[in-house]
């Protein structure tokens, strides 16, 4: 009977030891899970911040593209105006040259 009691005590002690190890392992896993959850939260926050920055960069790019297009159109308009002014200037020079030629004939 005594050997049965000792045997039972050994088995109970083994179960207690296994329970203690399992409890310790569960605590370690819970801590690791908490750390991973925190890292996940930080990564999600970084992704959201990055997404906002990307959205802002896209807005800035669109604004700059619109400004570029406006300036390009203005440049083309100014080129047309300059071409018109050059045409007027050429006509004026020809008329002035014609006046000089006429006045030189009269002299």
Question: Please, could you describe this protein's structure?
Answer:
By secondary structure, the chain is mainly alpha-helical. The protein is built from one helix and no strands. The chain has one helix spanning 2-106. The radius of gyration is 45 Å and the shape is rod-shaped. The model has no long low-confidence stretch (mean pLDDT 90).
Q: How would you sum up this structure in a few lines?
A:
The protein has 107 residues and is an all-alpha fold. It has one helix spanning 2-106. The protein contains one helix and no strands.
Radius of gyration: 45 Å
Q: Tell me the overall shape.
A: rod-shaped
Strand content bin: under 5%
Sketch the topology as an H/E string, one letter per element. H
Q: Please mark out the parts with pLDDT under 50 across 5 or more consecutive residues, or reply none.
A: none
Helicity range of the residues?
over 70%
What separation lies between the terminal Cα atoms? 154 Å
Q: How many individual β-strands?
A: 0
> Helix count, per DSSP?
1
Round the mean pLDDT to the nearest integer and report it.
90
Main sheet, how many strands, which sense, barrel? none
Estimated structural class = mainly alpha
Protein name: Cell division protein ZapB
Coiled coil: 5-88
Keywords: Coiled coil
Identify the notable features of this structure and list them briefly.
107 residues; mainly alpha; 1 helix; rod-shaped
Question: What's the SSE blueprint?
Answer:
Blueprint: H1 2-106
């Amino acid at each position: 009977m005594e050997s049965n009691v000792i045997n039972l005590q050994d088995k109970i002690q083994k179960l207690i030891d296994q329970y203690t190890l399992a409890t310790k392992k569960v605590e370690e896993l819970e801590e690791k899970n908490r750390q991973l959850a925190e890292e996940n939260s930080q990564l999600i926050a970084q992704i959201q911040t990055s997404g906002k920055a990307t959205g802002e960069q896209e807005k800035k790019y669109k604004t700059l593209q619109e400004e570029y297009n406006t300036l390009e159109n203005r440049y083309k308009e100014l080129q047309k105006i300059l071409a018109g002014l050059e045409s007027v200037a050429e006509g004026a020079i020809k008329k002035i040259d014609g006046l000089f030629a006429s006045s030189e004939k009269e002299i």
